[in-house]
Write a structure and sequence with these properties.
Layout (H helix, E strand, L loop, with lengths): L8 H18 L5 H7 E16 L5 E14 L8 E9 L5 E10 L13 E4 L4 E3 L2 H6 L6 E9 L5 E8 L3 E2 L20
Parallel strand pairs: 1-9
Antiparallel strand pairs: 1-2, 2-5, 2-6, 3-4, 3-7, 7-8
């Protein structure tokens, strides 16, 4: 019967730690400058969109800021696995109004020099009123901005830019059903 040799615990741990250290140093995340040299945000459009709407029993309309953009790949390799975090806040404020995390580039990579399809992100918080007229008649909309942060290849979030949120409202209230309109009953055919 052969005797198994027991390894001292310290040797086992040192082997595990040295092999994991080699793995970690081989997988360095890209720097802020590297990310900005590869990823560019283009075709930015901002507006306010509907989050919640009801006419009855208590009228309520919640509008949230939104941003639509495309990602341009400035590298010579296909661009895979990019996450974008949009932070919405009042201009000059330190507190965020809301945010939106999006796995922007997944299944289909962005080809070298190419653009992603249009991507839209909406804030999870916004402004509340009773109807669209409430927002149109409110004097002095506050100025909001959106900042877009990218994460790629295990990087920390990197700011790609900041854009003002337009006061354009992309929402139309539906016409009330049968309010003030007479419906004509067709006459029977003879």
């Amino acid at each position: 019967m052969k005797k198994r040799q027991k390894w001292p615990l310290a040797i086992v741990f040192s082997i595990i730690l040295s092999s994991s250290a080699l793995f970690v140093t081989g997988c360095k995340a890209p720097s802020d400058a590297e990310i900005k040299s590869v990823i560019e945000i283009t075709d930015v459009e901002t507006k306010w969109v509907m989050k919640e709407y009801r006419q009855w029993p208590n009228p309520k309309l919640i509008l949230v800021p939104a941003v639509t953009y495309k990602i341009k790949n400035k590298s010579l390799e296909p661009l895979h696995h990019v996450n974008i975090n949009a932070i919405f806040k009042e201009k000059g404020a330190t507190v965020n109004l809301g945010d939106s995390f999006y796995a922007a580039v997944r299944g289909t990579p962005v080809p070298p020099g190419g653009l992603s399809p249009a991507l839209t992100q909406k804030s999870n918080f916004g402004a509340e009123g009773k109807n669209l007229d409430h927002f149109k008649l409110t004097i002095g909309w506050k100025s909001y901005v959106v900042r877009l942060f990218a994460q790629w290849k295990g990087s920390k979030p990197v700011v790609l830019g900041e854009w003002p949120v337009s006061n354009t409202i992309d929402f139309k209230e539906p016409e009330p059903v049968h309010m003030g309109k007479e419906t004509k009953v067709p006459e029977p055919k003879k």
